[in-house]
């Protein structure tokens, strides 16, 4: 196997990881270049190639695979740079996406939003009413055709949408999950009467019940469809010019990659996929470590320039959920469970006049102009400016010394931000870091405690460019004793590593309505049908059938309940014993989530969804281990004044490139790497594990930074 390339685009920087044929890992970073993100994509690959002395053209042409974490669709939706979309739906159901769910305004909302609910208005519907057309048709819950499709009326509706300016058309008809015949005919009519229009049909995007969520998925797929398609075509064109002859692989929110052709067909799969790479990388490291080194139960904290993204792994496996959120809009696309907040190195420090206090984020300075210390015209203080002023960052060594930071500009910006509360620059910096760290700790509690996990039993993987600076402070707030900076300096581009190590993955699901006692024969007949669809999607991407591994899962609930629980399902042919095994797995998972004794078997059970995950390894590489270097002690290369609880004091600085397994240093200390630094607080120790990850062990009796 030759080298593979992983590229992840963030709000501030684009990261690239090259995985060599012997497992060697090399990182490259370049500023992100919105709206032409493909430029930053190529620049990051070139930067990584420069570090290994390989010209860009050779690096791309000889790559065995190029893997991409694409955030273009998410950015387009956030910034309202989407296509103008029309919706075709069943007569009488045009208001579904406006009505939403009863608790939609509160689901996934941050605490300050809920606390001041009266000050907020309901989110605007995804589409205005004049872009929604009803058609006469009706399918019953069992798939029977109740009202035939009025094709003449449908054609007239399509023409009205086109005349109104629709650039893409979404199709979602009631109960088409049971029989998609009308949706399929509408696709044909749109193709005939509005040629060249992007078409998004709910029965292809989501194959499960839930009118609102299915319709939302179809609409979002249409909104971002042309944006994602155009971007991927530009990236593929640039790669082809450089001699790359294989399919580009694109990360999905489900935690795997698909060929760009599949991503163009279902662009919604790329939504919120950027943060997923970090979880996949953590899982890969857990597999390599065999659960050793704290890699089994993990909370991931990916702090980049714009956001903090938090995920949870149990036994090295990321937690998954059956739905995805965009703001207050929920839709049915399986995804790895990642909680994101606007807390990154570029998050802006500002005075809130309404609350008469300092706030940090969610607004970000982005890549341009960036933090004040970048010297690119930015005048607003950010978390990175605070990190610089308190002494966490050496202004001469930022980004391997390629960017010299301007401390005077950072101090001016921080002093201006804190003037209203009487703070000078250092006081503002210290306050800003305490605020942002508290916000990040709360985000981790949402992802762990509110999901039934005690963070004190987990290791914290801190990565992204800013994650290692704040990982130990977060862990102390949460009672976590072990912080891992995965593969040291590669932590700053960890999501790109995760993208490069991801499997090819497709998820196929099927809505059912099965109640106990369950029929083994019925389950035995349904599983092969779903697996056949999943296998067809894999082979269409060029994956050999014998390389595909099938995983089954179900969604189950007690009868009379509304919400389901996902449960792994046994493989093979089903008999009564397999059915009992499935029931037992549901009861165990239900008790884990809601507590012992909360199950109610007397009510009976229901299966609402059968799901198949088909995966195949996209590559085969081993994370290298390092030799023990503890024969020679690790000596500091100097010291730097760092602001702590008792003011500014000298702190020893170590060169991370000289650290080896067996070395151990007691804090306070700073361990510097080319693209990030690890802050080690008082009474903590830091060392390196056999894989080259920096490990900070905390003693919770101290509260120093």
Keywords:
single chain, 705 residues, alpha+beta, Nucleotidyltransferase, domain 5, Dna Ligase, domain 1, 9-stranded mixed β-sheet, 6-stranded mixed β-sheet, 18 helices, 35 strands, 31% helix
Write the layout of secondary structure elements.
Blueprint: E1 4-9, E2 13-19, E3 25-31, H1 37-52, H2 56-61, E4 65-69, H3 72-78, E5 85-90, H4 96-99, H5 111-115, E6 132-135, E7 138-139, E8 145-147, H6 151-163, E9 168-172, H7 181-193, E10 198-201, H8 202-205, H9 211-241, E11 249-251, E12 257-259, H10 260-265, H11 276-289, E13 298-303, E14 308-314, E15 317-318, E16 320-321, E17 324-326, E18 329-331, E19 335-336, E20 338-341, E21 347-352, E22 357-364, H12 383-390, H13 407-418, H14 425-447, E23 459-463, H15 467-478, E24 482-485, H16 494-500, E25 504-515, H17 520-539, E26 549-558, E27 565-569, H18 576-594, E28 605-616, E29 638-644, E30 647-655, E31 664-666, E32 669-672, E33 677-680, E34 685-688, E35 694-697
Parallel strand pairs: 1-4, 4-11, 5-6, 5-9, 9-10, 13-23, 23-24, 30-32
Antiparallel strand pairs: 1-2, 2-3, 7-8, 11-12, 13-14, 14-15, 14-20, 16-19, 17-18, 21-22, 24-35, 25-28, 26-27, 26-28, 29-30, 31-34, 32-33, 34-35
Structural class: alpha+beta
Q: What is the number of strand segments?
A: 35
Helix content: 25-40%
Examine the coordinates and then state which fold CATH places here, giving the name of the CATH topology of the domain at 4-77 and 229-270. Nucleotidyltransferase, domain 5
């Amino acid at each position: 196997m030759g080298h593979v390339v992983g590229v992840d685009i963030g709000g501030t920087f684009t990261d690239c990881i090259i995985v060599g044929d012997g497992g060697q890992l090399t990182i490259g970073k370049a500023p992100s270049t919105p709206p032409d993100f493909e430029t930053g994509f190529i620049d990051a690959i070139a930067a990584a190639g420069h570090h290994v002395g390989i010209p860009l053209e050779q690096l791309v042409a000889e790559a065995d695979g190029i893997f991409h974490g694409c955030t273009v669709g998410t950015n387009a939706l956030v910034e309202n740079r989407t296509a103008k979309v029309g919706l075709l739906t069943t007569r009488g159901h045009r208001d579904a996406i406006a009505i939403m769910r009863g608790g939609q305004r509160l689901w996934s909302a941050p605490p300050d939003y809920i606390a001041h609910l009266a000050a907020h208005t309901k989110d605007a519907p995804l589409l205005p009413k004049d872009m929604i057309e009803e058609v006469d048709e009706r399918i019953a819950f069992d798939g029977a055709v109740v009202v035939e499709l009025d094709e003449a009326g449908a054609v007239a509706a399509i023409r009205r949408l086109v005349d109104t300016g629709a650039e893409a058309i979404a199709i979602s008809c009631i109960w088409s999950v049971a029989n998609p015949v009308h949706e399929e005919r509408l696709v044909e009519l749109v193709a005939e009467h509005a040629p060249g229009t992007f078409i998004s049909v709910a029965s292809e995007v989501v194959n499960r019940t839930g009118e609102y969520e299915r319709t939302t998925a179809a609409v979002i797929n249409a909104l971002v469809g042309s944006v994602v398609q155009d971007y991927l075509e530009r990236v593929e064109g640039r790669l082809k010019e450089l001699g790359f002859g294989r399919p580009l692989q694109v990360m999905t929110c489900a935690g795997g990659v698909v060929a760009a052709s599949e991503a163009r067909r279902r662009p919604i799969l790329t939504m919120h996929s950027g943060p997923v790479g970090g979880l996949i990388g953590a899982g890969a490291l857990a597999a390599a470590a065999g659960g050793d080194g704290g890699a089994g139960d993990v909370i991931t904290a990916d702090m980049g320039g714009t956001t903090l993204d938090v995920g949870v792994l149990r036994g090295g496996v990321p937690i998954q959920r059956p739905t995805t959120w965009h703001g207050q809009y929920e839709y049915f696309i399986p995804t790895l469970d990642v909680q994101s907040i606007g807390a990154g190195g570029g998050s802006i420090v500002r005075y809130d006049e309404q609350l008469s206090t300092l706030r940090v984020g969610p607004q970000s300075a982005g890549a341009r102009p960036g933090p004040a210390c970048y010297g690119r015209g930015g005048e607003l203080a950010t978390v990175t400016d605070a990190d610089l002023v308190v002494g966490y960052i050496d202004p001469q060594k930022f980004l391997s010394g390629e960017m010299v930071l301007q401390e005077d500009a950072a101090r001016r910006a921080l002093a201006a931000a804190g003037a209203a509360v009487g703070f000078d620059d250092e006081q503002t910096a210290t306050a800003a870091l305490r605020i942002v760290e508290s916000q990040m700790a709360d985000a981790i509690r949402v992802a762990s405690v509110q999901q039934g996990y005690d963070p004190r039993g987990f290791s914290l993987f801190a990565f992204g460019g800013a994650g290692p600076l704040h990982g130990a402070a977060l862990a102390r707030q949460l009672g976590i004793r072990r912080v891992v900076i995965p593969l040291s300096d590669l932590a700053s581009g960890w999501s790109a590593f995760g993208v490069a190590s991801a499997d090819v993955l497709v998820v196929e699901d099927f809505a059912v309505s099965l109640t106990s006692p369950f029929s083994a024969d019925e389950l035995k007949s349904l599983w092969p049908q779903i697996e056949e669809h999943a296998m067809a999607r894999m082979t269409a991407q060029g994956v050999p059938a014998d390389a595909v591994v099938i995983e089954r899962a179900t969604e189950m609930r007690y009868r009379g309940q509304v919400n389901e629980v996902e449960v792994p399902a046994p493989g093979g042919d089903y008999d009564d014993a397999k059915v009992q095994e499935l029931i037992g797995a549901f009861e165990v998972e239900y008790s884990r989530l809601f507590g012992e004794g909360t199950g109610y078997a007397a009510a009976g059970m229901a299966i609402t969804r059968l799901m198949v995950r088909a995966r195949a390894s996209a590559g085969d590489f081993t994370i290298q281990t390092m030799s023990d270097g503890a024969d020679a002690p690790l000596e500091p290369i100097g010291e730097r004044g760092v602001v702590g609880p008792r003011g500014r004091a000298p702190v020893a600085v170590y060169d991370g490139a000289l650290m080896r397994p067996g070395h151990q240093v007691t804090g306070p200390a700073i361990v510097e790497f080319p693209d990030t630094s690890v802050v080690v607080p008082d009474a903590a120790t830091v060392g390196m594990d056999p894989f080259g990850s920096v490990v900070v062990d905390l003693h919770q009796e101290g509260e120093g930074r």
